[in-house]
Write a structure and sequence with these properties.
1304 residues, mainly alpha, two-stranded antiparallel sheet, 68 helices, globular, developmental protein, PHAF1/BROMI, Rab-GAP_TBC_sf, Protein broad-minded
């Protein structure tokens, strides 16, 4: 088809005409011809229907028929002849074929033919348009009224579809004539004709004409005309103006519409219908007002999208005219139903927009909200007064038999718009819609400070003004009046029910701190919420129309209060809230007591609630918002709620196990449905039990219930579905997984649930497999970071899982590496030992060849190993089992080039740099100023990596920093003088207090003197004094008389031997030990083990942690040995005395391992007191004292407790310099064991800026584990820690004592 026939041209002209009609609105809205051309040129980009236009389809078919053969030939030619040059991707082939097709003669001929034909067609269209315009003017002058009427009806309607019908320019004289014809005194036909002409005029011309004032007056008269055709025609003109004009035009039309409505309601009073009569919307005067209000409401909801682009005065005119209309109230106002009461604008607006969407939109943006609130305060406060009055009236006119409320709510929710719409509304329905509209307006108003400032409000028939608290109490009481319905029904009730609407308002208020403080956290409000609970606890029936539904919504509101920090503190500590009841207890205690009685079925006044899973689950959820925080668990722990929930779970679980297998086609029986409900209830209980794991102490309680495996399995099922913890928690399960993984029973539960396998598979898919849906022409980019962004989430998850030595002991202890001779490429790792084998310990060519991305994957493994080895106990286990140092050194040797001189030169690449860093980290021990770790990045310049590599230990001296040799002589200082003068007074009761004063003074004035022999003497004297006093001895005295010869025969494990080697190396570096000190340290460790083993009980457990002896190294004993200068006698003597004191329970982790002094259930749990007590209070105090750091941990999915048990477990080795380690130990012994908690808080406060920074870069875990604590000095924070002692000692120290069985 190279040429067009006459028929083709006619068809093409018709299709072009249709296309232009379709885009008429876009073209007519263009400010200039150039803009219209731009719109047409870019139509394909902006019009989603572009390819559906018939004109476009016709052109596509024409191009295909003309160039199809050419394209096929070129495609075959490229595929055969030039395939080797174009085979790099499909995109290149397309470009080549396109270029050759456009260069062909057929393409040039086609374009020339199209241009010529289209020029003819466009010229024909223009000529026809001019002819039509001339005919149209002739018809306007000469045609009869009927014809003109018909003509305008067809061409000026809202659905005008003729392309040639467009706005024509209109003269001022013509508008003057139209205005005169619209005068109410003129005949109907004349006014009709004038309206028809007005509809064809541009709205901007109409509003800018000199006669607009008169025209506006006449349009308002036509709006109020009883003739529906005239008023409808004016509404059509208004609607067309709203949809096609800017705000400076539409606000004039809107204010005209509102003024007309205002006049209507003022001069044509409509009586409020009686109960029997109701309101018929088909009545002409009602229908006319409803249509006008509907148009007004539509504009109200749309105008917010564009009024910010216009001057504020336009918006203010619109808002003020609306508020003026709604402030119209007849003198009788709200009162009993009767003929004297009038229908008001708000009644109509409530019918059309029952949830006050218009008001919500106006209040959403600050731009309009300030204007609304200013006008309400200054001129139109009556709008709010009547809304409050309507809510109070609805509450006070409550009829106990108001069963039809549900029916009304259902009817209003499901009313239809269209041919089947409702036409009759009863008086009660009108009142109800007005109440719901008022409730929504007030709910939105209370969200904002200036809205709340409108209160208190004076209303009729009430002596005192209505305060914010009064209003909220009224709303809660309305919620209590909800008609009786079962909760199973209420779950599907209409959103317009009073309970649902009030609950939504309360929810909104609870979510905003300032709103909640002013509206919710008030004694009358909390008392009103708790009143039904108090009644039921005292055996009295609650004054609730529907107890199950109302209590569920009460619980929902209480849960949202408890979610916030202020609300939680209110529930836990504020006793004034329930003073009216005379009980003198906090709201939290009341809620927990009620929940306990619900679960135990001990509520005689309401037995049906005891069988309602909805109510029980709702109140457990309220308790959960408290016990999943450290401070909440502290208050609620005496109630043993975990045991109550676990008991209910076991009972329900036994029922759910009897669920029969469903048979296809069988009708489910009632008993089967009950059992299915039991399964759902079991999941609710598991979910709530699981949330005890949000805190360290809560995790211990969860473990003691025996349900930790089931809870973790349930968590894994939700984790895989990417579900949040609950509707109140903002984060997922990351923090909880980290918390659980920090303990032995927790990591075992995670492993058995399949969680770890899923994480490993996900990691392997991201690291080795990549995405399967990526096109071949877009290969995966080479990662620029050591850990690619696609693998970062998996890396951080593994870091969280494997940070604790408990996780390493349970998942890798006594596990050998597979070390296969061949690995299938399709074989995916499924466990941590597989990850170690495939990514970390790469010691064979088979492992290298099994990786698609060897360098990236091995780098990932080395980075993971680096983080794991930061924990010294994990390092000892990995080194003893897998000889990691030997493998890494061999890899470095293999990466060297043999030189002629015989010394190898190392190849510097990503892996060799990683291995060099790791080898130094594993061998060198010391704080921030005691060792130097080589960087992992290359430097710019001629020498990109100046750090020496090595392939055998020890590492080069440049990685070990020199430290001055400590003075072991007695130094002249105040503390030395105190020790020398107090030999006779050591048994004085006040000696310890004096010692603390001197210690604090020495620390704050000159802490450098507290080293060497001075500090050793001070600790000896302090421990001797404390252990000599029965009041200070926490553990009973233990007789230990073992000769050295017997102890020397005791065998040390490989882990212990490596720990001794590291300790000796550190002591030699610090110049505290001699070369021959190894035997003395071995002897001390053996004595320590022998002494502690005599106080241990034999436990039967599946945990590797509890099998045999203490699995890690005794870092505290090593610290004491170094502190005593390698004197084994002094060290052992101090340890034996120290073992009687309470500080030994937390400072010395090996002290209470499987200890007889622990409660049996705690000893069997595998959760040490260092975690369940110290770490718990670290999290609790951190939230109160350094909230930004606490929030940063939450956002990172990491926990402060996990970091603290690593610091404390190895006595801050590798994190602090030796003097600060000594000060940490001495401070906790002399000042008290609770200083261990304060020390962690001080460190985290010191690191606050770094923590916030690394949270932003998503590597907080790696920073805290790998980096030492720079610049921290215990003496700088001693005063801060003393302040913490004054605030928290009573609580922390009391709990440290309570976790143990104090023997007498």
């Amino acid at each position: 088809m190279s040429q067009f026939s006459a028929e083709d041209e006619a068809e093409l002209q018709s299709l072009l005409r249709q296309l232009l009609k379709s885009v008429k609105e876009r073209i007519s809205g263009a400010p200039s011809v150039e803009c219209a051309e731009e719109i047409l040129l870019h139509l394909e980009e902006t019009d989603k229907n572009f390819h559906n236009y018939e004109f476009v389809k016709y052109l596509r078919q024409y191009v295909e028929s003309t160039l199809g053969a050419v394209i096929e030939e070129e495609t075959e030619s490229c595929a055969k002849g030039d395939g080797h040059t174009i085979g790099s991707g499909q995109d290149t082939l397309v470009h080549a074929v396109t270029r050759r097709a456009r260069e062909s003669s057929q393409y040039k001929q086609m374009m020339q033919t199209l241009k010529q034909t289209m020029m003819v067609i466009v010229e024909s269209l223009i000529n026809k348009f001019e002819e039509d315009q001339l005919k149209k003017e002739e018809m306007n002058r000469n045609s009869q009224h009927e014809q003109s009427s018909s003509h305008y009806t067809d061409n000026c309607s809202d659905s005008d579809s003729s392309f040639n019908q467009s706005y024509a320019f209109i003269k001022q004289e013509q508008l003057q004539v139209i205005s005169e014809k619209l005068d109410p005194s003129r005949p109907r036909e004349v006014r009709w004709e004038a309206l028809q002409s007005l509809c064809c005029a541009p709205p901007s011309d109409v509003l800018s004409c000199e006669s607009w004032t008169g025209l506006r007056r006449n349009l308002s008269a036509a709006l109020a005309d009883p003739d529906p055709d005239l008023s409808d025609k004016v509404l059509r003109f208004f609607a067309k103006t709203f949809s096609s004009s800017p705000l400076n035009v539409t606000r004039e039309i809107y204010t005209s519409l509102v003024k007309s409505l205002e006049s209507d309601f003022l001069y044509h009073k409509l009586s409020f219908p009686t109960e029997s009569a109701g309101m018929d919307v088909n009545r002409p005067d009602i229908a006319r007002l409803l249509k006008q209000m509907r148009l007004m409401n539509d504009f109200q909801q749309e105008v917010t999208t564009f009024w910010i682009r216009h001057p504020e005065k336009y918006m203010e005119e619109i808002i003020e005219s609306t508020l003026a209309l709604l402030s119209l109230h007849h003198e009788h106002g709200i009162g009993p139903h009767g003929s004297e009461k009038a229908l008001e604008p708000v009644h109509f607006l409530s019918l059309l927009d029952i949830k006050a969407t218009w008001f919500k939109k106006w209040m959403h943006g600050y731009y309009s909200r300030t204007v609304v609130l200013r006008l309400l305060e200054r001129k139109y406060k009556s709008v709010i007064v009547t809304a409050v009055q309507q809510c109070i009236y609805y509450f006070e006119s409550y009829d106990p038999v108001r069963e039809e409320t549900l029916e009304i709510a259902h009817a209003m929710e499901h009313q239809q718009i269209g041919p089947a719409q409702r036409s009759f509304y009863s008086a009660k329905e009108l009142e109800y819609t007005y109440f719901i509209h008022s409730l929504c307006v007030l709910g939105r108003l209370l969200m904002y400070t200036n809205g709340r400032k409108l209160f208190p409000i004076k209303v009729r028939k009430r002596r005192d003004p209505v305060t914010l608290t009064d209003l909220v109490v009224v709303l809660i009481n309305i919620m209590y009046q909800h008609p009786n319905t079962s909760y199973s029904d209420s779950a599907h009730t209409d959103s317009l029910s009073p309970t649902s609407m009030v609950t939504e308002v309360l929810k909104t208020l609870c979510e905003r701190t300032e709103c909640a403080v002013e509206c919710i956290y008030q004694t009358p409000v909390i008392e009103t919420l708790l009143a039904p609970i108090f009644a039921l606890l005292k055996g009295k029936p609650a004054k609730l129309n529907s107890p199950e539904s109302s209590l569920t919504h009460i619980a929902d509101t209480l849960a949202r209060i408890a979610t916030t920090q202020r609300g939680l503190a209110l529930f836990l500590y504020e006793r004034k809230l329930v003073s009216a009841e005379g009980d003198g207890i906090t709201a939290g205690h009341v809620i927990v007591q009620f929940t306990q009685k619900l679960l135990a079925k001990e509520l005689p006044a309401s037995t049906e609630l005891e069988n309602s899973p909805a109510v029980k689950g709702a109140f457990i959820f309220v308790c959960r918002q408290m016990y999943n925080t450290c401070e909440g668990l502290q208050v609620l722990r005496p109630y043993s709620l975990h045991e109550c929930i676990a008991k209910a779970w076991r009972k329900t679980s036994s029922l759910s196990e009897r669920v029969p297998t469903p048979v296809p086609g069988a009708i489910p029986s009632s008993s089967s449905q009950e059992l299915q409900n039991a399964v759902a209830w079991e999941e609710v209980l598991l979910d709530n039990l699981l949330n005890f794991a949000a805190t360290p102490k809560g995790l211990l309680l969860l473990q003691q219930t025996g349900a930790i495996h089931e809870c973790v399995t349930y968590m894994f099922s939700r984790f895989t579905k990417k579900l949040q913890v609950s509707r109140c928690e903002k984060f997922g399960y990351g923090v909880m997984v980290t918390q659980v993984a920090a303990t032995a029973p927790g990591i075992v539960a995670l492993h058995s649930s399949g969680f770890i396998q899923a994480i490993v598979v996900e990691l392997w898919s991201a690291l080795e497999c990549g995405r399967e849906d990526v096109r071949v022409v877009h290969p995966k980019s080479t990662p620029m970071d050591p850990i690619d962004r696609s693998c970062l989430k998996s890396f951080l998850t593994l870091v969280n899982l494997m940070s604790s030595p408990h996780a390493v002991w349970e998942l890798l202890g006594h596990q050998t590496l597979p070390n296969k001779t061949e690995y299938n490429l399709r074989e995916m790792p499924t466990s941590i030992i597989d990850v170690m084998d495939r990514l970390v310990v790469i010691n064979s060519d088979a492992k290298i060849h099994s990786l698609f991305n060897y360098e990236q994957s091995h780098t990932f493994g080395l980075r993971l190993l680096s983080v794991m080895c930061c924990n010294l106990d994990s390092l000892l286990l990995l080194e003893s089992q897998y000889k990691l140092s030997d493998i890494l050194l061999q890899s470095q040797k293999d990466n060297a080039i043999e030189a002629s001189s015989g010394e190898g030169e190392f190849i510097i690449d990503g892996l060799s740099v990683e291995r060099n860093h790791l080898l130094v980290r594993m061998n060198a021990i010391g704080g921030p100023s005691e060792r130097r770790l080589p960087p992992r990045a290359l430097q710019k310049g001629s020498d990109p990596y100046p750090w020496p590599m090595f392939s055998s230990y020890p590492p080069p001296n440049c990685y070990i920093l020199d430290v001055p040799k400590p003075l072991r002589t007695k130094q002249d200082s105040e503390i030395s003088a105190f020790l020398a003068s107090s030999k006779e007074a050591e048994r004085d009761e006040n000696w310890m207090e004096s010692c603390r004063r001197h210690y604090c003074k020495a620390m704050t004035s000159k802490s450098t003197v507290l080293t060497g022999n001075v500090l050793a003497d001070l600790l000896e004297k302090a421990v001797l004094h404390l252990s000599s006093s029965s009041a200070n001895c926490f553990f009973p005295p233990a007789e230990y008389k073992v000769v050295d010869h017997y102890v020397k025969t005791r065998k040390l494990t490989s882990v212990e031997q490596l720990g001794i080697s590291i300790s000796l190396r550190y002591g030699l570096f610090l110049k505290l030990l001699r070369e021959d000190s190894e035997q003395d340290l071995c002897l001390l460790i053996k004595h320590s083990q022998e002494f502690l083993s005599q106080q241990r009980v034999t436990l039967q457990s599946e945990l590797c942690y509890l099998r045999g002896g203490y699995p890690g190294h005794d870092w505290f004993s090593s610290t004491i040995f170094l502190l005593m200068g390698g004197d084994v006698g002094r060290s052992l003597s101090l340890l034996l005395r120290f073992s009687r004191l309470l500080p030994s329970a937390v400072l010395w982790p090996a002290r209470l391992y499987s200890s007889m002094h622990l409660p049996v259930e705690m000893a069997q749990s595998g959760i040490p007191p260092l975690y369940s007590c110290t770490a718990h209070y670290v999290e609790m105090l951190l939230k109160a004292e350094v909230p930004l750091v606490f929030s940063a941990f939450r956002m990172s999915g990491f926990t402060p407790s996990q970091m603290c048990i690593q610091w404390l477990g190895q006595c801050f080795w590798n994190y602090l310099d030796w003097p600060e380690i000594c000060h940490y130990v001495s401070t906790c012994i002399i000042m008290g064991p609770d200083y261990q908690v304060y020390m962690c808080i001080a460190v985290l406060k010191h690191l606050q800026q770094d923590i916030l920074q690394y949270t932003q870069t998503q590597d907080l875990q790696v920073f805290l584990k790998e980096d030492p604590i720079h610049g921290f000095r215990v003496s700088d924070y001693l005063e801060y820690m003393e302040g913490l002692e004054r605030s928290y000692r009573g609580m922390v120290l009391t709990d440290m004592r309570s976790i143990l069985l104090k023997s007498t």
